[in-house]
Design brief:
Length: 95
C-alpha cells in the first residue's frame, strides 16, 4: 500500500500561485477550471496550485493525486499572506 501524507509528497511538485484573488466559495473542481481556462495548464498534472482570497487571509491549494483532487486550506486569524499582484513579474524557481 502506498504511503499517504496530509501534505504534498516528500518530493515537492511544481507550485504555481494564481495571483488574482479568487471567490472562496469555489471548491476543487471550480479551481481546477481556473487552472485550465485562465492559466492554460493541465490541472491533472500533479502540480500544486495556490489561490488566495481578496483579503489575503485565506489560502487554498489544489493538486491532483492518483484518482482525485487534494485540497489544502489555511485561514490566518490576524495576519495576511504576502502574495504577488497580477502585474508583478513572474518568478520561476528551478529545482
Amino acid at each position: 500500500m502506498k504511503v499517504r501524507y496530509l501534505r504534498p509528497a516528500k518530493q515537492m511538485p511544481e507550485i504555481y500561485l494564481y495571483r488574482a484573488p479568487v471567490d472562496f466559495r469555489k471548491q476543487a473542481n471550480g479551481l481546477a477550471l481556473l487552472v485550465e481556462q485562465e492559466l492554460g495548464h493541465n490541472p491533472f498534472s500533479g502540480a500544486l496550485y495556490a489561490f488566495t482570497n481578496r483579503q489575503r487571509n485565506k489560502i487554498k491549494c489544489v493538486m491532483w493525486e492518483d484518482n482525485g483532487f487534494v485540497m489544502y486550506y489555511k485561514a490566518l486569524a490576524e495576519e495576511k499572506f504576502k502574495w504577488p499582484k497580477p502585474a508583478d513579474e513572474l518568478l520561476v524557481f528551478n529545482r
